[in-house]
């Protein structure tokens, strides 16, 4: 079992033992510092990457080593506070160094298989860091706004409706409800009493804003043919019978830059990294003796003699 998998199985118990109220026979805790003692932690300068947090057989473990371990997805510790996380990472690094030193003594690193693995992971780390640098270069305010402007320019204006509805099982019931509302009863109050739609009933039948394609055709056609304030006659869909009230209509506003920023950044990163790999491939001399043959192309027609 890889060590990281072992750590995941052990860390849950370690965290449980460390939690207040669950600890078993722990060593006595130091008394809290007197109130007059300055709170050094609030003004302490953050430790640099070369700060030593532990050592194993004379070889230091630094804050920078902990930072690298903390970035390992296999060592994710959600819900653990920073002090506990640091302690668990130090324990992990101690075990890692102890095991690595023992493996060195056992000449594990001298085997051809290990050397191949080491070369593979070195290449992978180099590529990952190279692509990360390319991503940072690609995401600039100028590039972000250029993509945003291009995106919103291509967006066609769409009409939106803000509507409420009441859903019931049969036409007769829908007619009675429509009559009540057209007679002056409050739509939201009647919806809360009678609607079968659990998603909107508690909100007085409110469906919010929607474009035409978001609703089933029969419902959408009825809603978009109405005017604000109008209440429909019963409308049948595959879900049942609806009574619809249109509250407002508008042209759908374009998304703001902040709303699209995350998607824009992901697009810029993916494109920059893909372009980089394609460029490197094009510039490299790649030989693949065992490459799969390309799909057979039909031979050109030739005239028979």
From TrEMBL:
Catalytic activity: [protein]-peptidylproline (omega=180) = [protein]-peptidylproline (omega=0)
Protein's UniProt keywords contain Endoplasmic reticulum: no
InterPro entries given in the database record: PPIase_dom_sf (IPR046357), PPIase_PpiC (IPR000297), PPIase_PpiC_CS (IPR023058), PrsA_foldase (IPR050245), Trigger_fact/SurA_dom_sf (IPR027304)
A Pfam cross-reference name: Rotamase
Gene Ontology molecular-function annotations: peptidyl-prolyl cis-trans isomerase activity
Keyword Isomerase: yes
Signal peptide start and end residues: 1-25
Source domain of life: Bacteria
PROSITE patterns (alphabetical): PPIC_PPIASE_1, PPIC_PPIASE_2
Coiled coil segments of this chain: none
Keyword tags: Isomerase, Rotamase, Signal
E.C. numbers: 5.2.1.8
Residue stretches making up the PpiC domain: 158-248
Family matches, as Gene3D superfamilies: 3.10.50.40
Family named by the database record: Belongs to the PpiC/parvulin rotamase family.
The name this protein goes by in its record: Parvulin-like PPIase
Originating organism: Methylobacterium phyllostachyos
């Amino acid at each position: 079992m890889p060590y990281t998998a072992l750590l995941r199985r052990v860390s849950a118990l370690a965290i449980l033992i460390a939690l207040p109220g669950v600890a078993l026979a722990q060593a006595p805790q130091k008394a809290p510092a007197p109130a007059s003692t300055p709170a050094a932690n609030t003004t302490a300068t953050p430790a640099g990457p070369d700060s030593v947090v532990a050592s194993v057989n004379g070889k230091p473990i630094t804050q920078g080593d902990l930072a690298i371990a903390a970035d390992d997805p296999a060592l994710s510790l959600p819900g653990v506070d920073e002090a506990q996380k640091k302690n668990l990472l130090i324990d992990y690094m101690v075990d890692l160094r102890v095991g690595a030193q023992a493996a060195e003594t056992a000449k594990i690193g001298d085997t051809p298989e290990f050397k191949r693995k080491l070369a593979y992971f070195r290449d992978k780390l180099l590529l990952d860091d190279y692509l990360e640098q390319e991503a940072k270069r690609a995401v600039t305010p100028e590039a972000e706004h250029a993509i945003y402007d291009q995106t919103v320019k291509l967006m066609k204006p769409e009409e939106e409706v803000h509507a409420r509805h009441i859903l019931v099982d049969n036409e007769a019931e829908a007619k009675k409800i429509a009559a009540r509302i057209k007679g002056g009863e409050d739509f939201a109050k009647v919806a809360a009493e009678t609607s079968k739609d659990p998603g909107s009933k508690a909100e007085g039948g409110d469906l919010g804003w929607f474009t035409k394609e978001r609703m089933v055709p029969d419902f959408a056609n009825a809603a978009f043919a109405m005017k604000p304030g109008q209440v429909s006659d019963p409308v049948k869909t595959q879900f049942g019978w609806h009574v619809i009230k249109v509250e407002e209509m508008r042209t759908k506003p374009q998304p703001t830059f902040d709303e699209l920023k995350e998607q824009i950044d992901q697009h810029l990163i993916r494109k920059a990294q893909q372009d980089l790999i394609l460029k490197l491939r094009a510039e490299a001399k790649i030989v693949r003796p065992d490459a799969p043959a390309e799909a057979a192309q039909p031979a050109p027609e030739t005239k028979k003699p």
